[in-house]
TrEMBL record:
<comment type="similarity">
    <text>Belongs to the glycosyltransferase 20 family.</text>
</comment>
<comment type="similarity">
    <text>In the C-terminal section; belongs to the trehalose phosphatase family.</text>
</comment>
<protein>
    <submittedName>
        <fullName>Bifunctional alpha,alpha-trehalose-phosphate synthase (UDP-forming)/trehalose-phosphatase</fullName>
    </submittedName>
</protein>
Length: 478
């Protein structure tokens, strides 16, 4: 049960606020992001008043602009932390996305170390800490999200020994052998252990974290708990879900229905394979394209009959490795289309931009196959959204065993994304799978997703955090 005090607040701390601000000189546009986390936490039923603290997605030094943005965001219980262009370069593009991100996704060779990255990461975590300290009151709870803010729990703990602090890690936590490479491994782990409750998408990530704590900090876990001075830190695997009903009922919405008609017209009689990702080397986009090219090479009978719709949402393109990847993807798609296109068929339909939620769900609904083949992925919500949107329509999910979602979605065709031949064979298997089997597999996966929703995930997290904090209260009183 959640605590009943009505005037207490739950502060959700994330690198980005669930709202994007754009514009200049007093003319600002505020658009609500559709991210899973924001919508999930929106529907979380709790007696706590929910507040968010995060970066509003805009760099401005003008005090007047900041004030105006601040006032507007406050109305929605959003509290901005303004970051300079230098901080975005060194904390966000630098330590978060050029050091931690590649390391946690097993891309060791992409990991960059610069002292200015680490300095900035500490500085920005401190900025977040100051903003929290300015706002919180006794009894409030703090829930920190993800790898951009791993020092924050420890910083807060030093100031507030009794504050309830939770942390969720949305990306993989790598094996100790990889994590130990990080020069600041001890500082990062100590930072995380400032929380009362720490959760991951899978047991494996949790196991890796425990092993890193034991070997780097020489602390001993008793099952899922470790004692630090007079308090316990508890860890758990809590896989994040989606807003199942909104996807499952999407096709009943008028706009989605119209988009479904448009999508059907666009792809005609072709079998549609869909792939949707943020631009990221961890998503295995090049391997996927090579798998599709091999499929075309060996299966001339499908030429003119199968189209791959590839949606790539631009992301972090100021980071060198992302910009290079974009060039390689463009080349690979050009090469496939150049080789196989005919006057009335283009094998890869490439979209380098996002789609509205209505258009995206229409594509999920129409697509015969979803090809989700990350080389590493903390969870992968696209796989879950595709399954949920299908209702009782047929469709096949091909899913990488390297995605966190593979633990729950065992009725997908699971493949090792490094093996081009497995991708090719999975496409054939999916194209030939009887409709009845497609529906049965989807149904079994839908049964899981309809229970493990994002709302349940968030409620479970808050409940577990509360339970751990109650235990710690008792320990302190002993
Ligand atoms: C991943 C991370 C999130 C992040 C998201 C978008 O899913 O786990 O923390 O918010 O990517 O990344 P961006 O860098 O665009 O904020």
């Amino acid at each position: 049960m959640l605590c009943e005090e009505i005037d207490m607040k739950l502060y959700i701390i994330a690198n980005r606020l669930p709202v994007k601000v754009a514009g200049t000189n007093g003319k600002f546009v505020f658009s609500r992001s559709e991210g899973g986390l924001a919508t999930g936490l929106d529907s979380l039923q709790t007696s706590y008043e929910k507040h968010w603290i995060g970066w509003p997605g805009i760099c401005t030094n003008e005090e007047k602009d900041q004030q105006e943005i601040n006032e507007k965001l406050q109305e929605m219980n959003f509290h901005p932390v303004f970051l300079s262009e230098k901080q975005i370069e060194n904390y966000y593009e630098g330590y978060s996305n050029s050091t931690i991100w590649p390391l946690c996704h097993y891309f060791y060779a992409y990991t960059l170390y610069k002292n200015c990255f680490w300095q900035s990461y500490q500085q920005v975590n401190r900025l977040f800490c100051e903003e929290i300290c300015r706002l919180i009151r006794p009894g409030d709870k703090v829930w920190i999200q993800d790898y951009q803010l791993m020092l924050l729990p420890g910083m807060l703990r030093k100031i507030y020994p009794e504050l309830s602090i939770g942390y969720f890690h949305h990306i993989p936590f790598p094996s100790y052998e990889l994590f130990r490479i990080l020069p600041e491994r001890a500082e990062i782990l100590k930072g995380l252990l400032g929380a009362d409750f720490i959760a991951f998408h899978t047991h494996d990530y949790m196991r890796h974290f425990i092993s890193a704590v034991e070997r780097v900090l020489h602390l001993d876990f008793k099952l899922d708990e470790v004692q630090i001075n007079n308090r316990m830190v508890r860890v758990e695997a809590l896989p994040m879900g989606i807003n199942y009903e909104s996807y499952h009922q999407a096709s009943e919405n008028k706009e989605v229905h119209q988009a479904i008609e448009r999508t059907r017209k666009l792809f005609g009689e072709h079998k549609l394979i869909l792939s949707v990702d943020r631009l990221d080397y961890s998503k295995g986009i090049l391997h996927r394209l090579r798998g599709f090219a091999t499929f075309l090479e060996h299966h001339a009978e499908y030429h003119g009959k199968v189209t791959l719709a590839m949606v790539i949402v631009p992301s972090r393109d100021h980071v060198g490795s992302y910009a290079e990847l974009k060039t390689k993807i463009d080349e690979e798609i050009g090469s496939i289309n150049g080789r196989y296109s005919t006057m009335n068929w283009t094998p890869v339909c490439y979209f380098y931009h996002g789609f509205s939620l209505e258009e995206l769900t229409a594509m999920y609904y129409v697509a015969d196959i979803a090809l989700v083949t990350p080389l590493r992925d903390g969870m992968n919500l696209v796989a879950k959204e595709y399954v949920a949107t299908k209702c009782d329509n047929p469709g096949v999910l091909i899913l990488s065993e390297m995605a966190g979602a593979a633990v729950e979605l065992t009725d997908a065709i699971q493949i090792n994304p490094n093996d081009t031949e497995q991708i090719e064979n999975a496409i054939c298997q999916a194209l030939e799978m009887p409709e009845e089997e497609q529906k049965q597999r989807l149904q079994r996966m839908q049964n899981i997703l309809s229970v493990q929703t994002v709302n349940k995930w968030a409620a479970d997290f808050v409940n577990e955090l509360n339970a751990t904090c109650m235990k710690n209260d008792m320990l302190r009183k002993k």
